Amino acid sequence: PQVEEKLMQQVMAESRVEEQPVQQVTVEPQVEERPVQQVVVEQVQKPISSTEVQEKAYVVNQRENDMRNVLQTPPTYAIPPLTLLSIPQQAALDNTEWLDEQKELLDTTFNNFHVGAHVINVSQGPAVTRFEVQPDPGVKVNKITNLSDDIKLSLAAKDIRIEAPIPGKSAIGIEVPNKESKPVFLREILRSPVFTKSESPLTVALGLDISGDPIVTDIRKMPHGLIAGATGSGKSVCINAILTSILYKAKPHEVKLMLIDPKMVELAPYNSVPHLVAPVITDVKAATAALKWAVEEMERRYELFAHAGARDLTRYNTIVSEREIPGETLPYIVIVIDELADLMMVAPGDVEEAICRIAQKARACGIHLLVATQRPSVDVITGLIKSNIPTRIAFTVSSQVDSRTIIDIGGAEKLLGRGDMLFLGNGTSKPVRVQGVYVSDDEIEKTVDHVKKQMKPNYLFKQEDLLAKTEQAESEDELFFDACQFVVEQGGASTSSVQRKFRIGYNRAARLIEEMESQGIISEGRGTKPRDVLISEDEFAAMQETNV
What we know:
Belongs to the FtsK/SpoIIIE/SftA family. The protein has 3 domains: 82-87 and 183-466, Rossmann fold (3-Layer(aba) Sandwich); 96-177, Threonyl-tRNA Synthetase, Chain A, domain 2 (2-Layer Sandwich), CATH 3.30.980.40; 477-547, Arc Repressor Mutant, subunit A, CATH 1.10.10. The chain contains 19 helices and 15 strands. It has helices at residues 2-72, 96-112, 141-145, 148-155, 186-190, 193-196, 235-249, 284-308, 313-321, 340-346, 348-361, 383-388, 400-407, 441-454, 463-475, 480-490, 495-502, 506-518, 537-547; strands spanning 117-124, 128-135, 161-163, 172-177, 203-209, 214-218, 225-228, 255-260, 332-337, 367-373, 391-394, 420-424, 432-436, 492-493, 531-532. Helix 2 packs across helix 4 (148-155) and helix 8 (284-308) runs parallel beside helix 11 (348-361).
């Protein structure tokens, strides 16, 4: 029995030893199951990684958009150097003797007419000298202003202008033409600190004031301008100075230009400039369509602003550049019309409507309007246009009536011509007399050639496209059958009734009436009386079914 017990103990010990590897084998599958659990976890996390991929794709798209913006204006684009412009004349004219003589004549004139006043200061500008006259206590201002013709006679001057009083001074200004005038060169203004330190890409040079200080303005603050004056007074030179200033201040991705030139020659040198949204428009019908395009662009921009939560162009571009929303930065657009009278003769209703809509709403979205005309009459510069364009530049005109049409006060009829202007800025009540800068054709050609060599234009549309679109719109008017039905129901037809019913311009309503007459729906015109309807409602319904 003892031997059997020992054998049993040995067998039990061996069986325990043999069971240990079995236990290890059973543990190993549990260890091997961990990768399976990890695989399952990875399968669950796959949708999360797909969203990360989408976010990465969004960032890539944003970078592509940013690259597209960069490609619009390559980093190699450089502003033209001032060496392309003529060097201003440094020699100053010594007019001390002439100034003393004029000052003595003024004092003598006041004494002869028993007016208590005397000259206290003299400011000499490029073309005009201003004598500051201080009246004695108790002397009325109109006593001096009433002596205008007598002062002109005693000084033997071509013309004089009296500013009573000078804004910010207790003196009256008597402006007398210089014995010799000095031209103002664009380079002189562009290198001045007031121009170079301005951060706005729409800073433009105008000229020098009577004190000889440079006058620059920001088109963003204008925000729209009216330039008017007689033929040869300096309007086109002023427009060239404004456009050249923009080329020296802004890159193509910052400012775009739309140039409308019915004269065909004034703005032709700027063709193929990369700042243009289209080639220079010379056709009047295409110009009307281009203004309508500007209105549509204005509405599109305001939709983008509303979606982005921005109030103006600067804020919108900031949001886009900080990648808060997808999209591209928008440039400023400056529309220049060199002769408004030609447009108003062809399509006054459509042109006036487009100009007024742009002038009323387009400031915040970065679209600005500069309008020039040599006929400052009320049929060209209508009340609606003038009330929506706050900044005015008046060159010499033939009458005081024309001066009042432009700047609401007289004075422009006494200007000297050759760039002599009155600048009425936005928010100011009195104009400032400025001698405008002179830009030669050679300077314009050098500047434009420098800009053309760096970058080719990327036009959004061409004049031919606008003309084709206009002809198609004229031949197929979607309101034709509605207008016909209205006329048949009314039993009479007139342009004004169609205009009021469908809220359209006069030209479009007149075309609808002419089309009805050509198709035999209404009779010929009878002066002020409405036209007769020649078909019945049943005949019109049959005609409509036939056309459908």
